[in-house]
Design goal:
Transport permease protein; transmembrane; 0% strand; transmembrane helix; 77% helix; mainly alpha; ABC_2_transport; 10 helices; Nod_factor_ABC_transporter
Length: 266
């Protein structure tokens, strides 16, 4: 009879720790001009740049370019925001805060969960800003409520996957600057996808890469949902890719975090 009570108490303790550290990470966002810029300014500039500088030169099969590109812009915004997550995790690992937490009754996974929750909140704001700016720039979605919810679900899964990969890179980094460098490849992955141009317009080698990497099905599915077009197998591929990557990144980040934060590990 005591085991369920003990487990329930441990669960409440872990949730309480996670809530406190989520609040800490969210406060860091509001106090950091760099993170606010990534959250608000970057998605706006990305969308306007692609909409008005490149939109007239890119053929998208009769679809207006702003309707085509907004899902890709969201993907790039999420991966750009991942650099802030990697840097924040590395800062905690290298600047002594984890040692302080270890001397307190704090659940170790709560430190990483706090960073991921803050990343999700930051990206949800960025997505809302980008959709709002897109509407002003000519974006005309025709999705129904169910399609909006499905698109949001895919974007949340994508954000969680990217955020946990960013956490993993932050744990691996030896310096805060190195964390930023390690996470930069994430930023460029969406560029070699269907985010900005149809893969069929690319050279053969790039086309094969673009059609068989994890960002493309997510972008294709979200775009189709926004525009009430057939989704095909893109949604299931996106779930498989990003669900699988998340399932790998979460335990791996946890194991490496415990090793690096153990006494005498550095």
């Amino acid at each position: 009879m005591n085991t369920p009570v003990t487990r329930a108490g441990e669960a409440r303790w872990a949730l309480s720790n996670a809530g406190a550290l989520v609040g800490r990470s969210l406060r860091h966002i509001t106090r950091s001009p760099e993170q606010l810029m990534l959250m608000l300014f970057l998605p706006t500039m990305l969308l306007l740049m692609f909409r008005y500088l490149f939109g007239g030169a890119i053929a998208t099969g009769g679809m207006s370019y702003v309707n085509y590109v907004i899902a890709g812009n969201i993907a790039v915004s999420v991966t750009f925001n991942a650099t802030a997550t990697s840097v924040a995790v590395a800062g905690d690992m290298l600047e002594g805060i984890v040692e302080r937490f270890r001397s307190m009754p704090v659940s170790s996974p709560a430190v990483l969960v706090g960073h991921v929750a803050a990343s999700l909140a930051r990206n949800l704001v960025s997505i809302a800003v980008m959709v709002g700016v897109g509407l002003l720039a000519g974006f005309r979605p025709v999705a129904g409520p169910g399609q909006w919810l499905a698109a949001l679900g895919l974007l949340v899964l994508f954000t969680l996957g990217v955020s946990w990969i960013a956490v993993l890179l932050g744990v691996l980094a030896k310096t805060v600057e190195g964390a930023s460098g390690l996470s930069m490849p994430l930023v460029f992955v969406p560029y070699v996808s269907s985010a900005f141009v149809p893969p069929g317009t690319m050279p053969e080698a790039l086309r094969v890469i673009a059609e068989n990497q994890p960002v493309t099905p997510m972008v294709d599915a979200v775009r189709a949902l926004f525009l009430d077009q057939p989704v095909g197998d893109s949604a299931w591929l996106a779930v498989a890719w990003w669900g699988g990557l998340t399932l790998v990144a979460v335990p791996l980040a946890g194991v490496l975090f415990r090793r690096r934060s153990a006494p005498g590990s550095r």
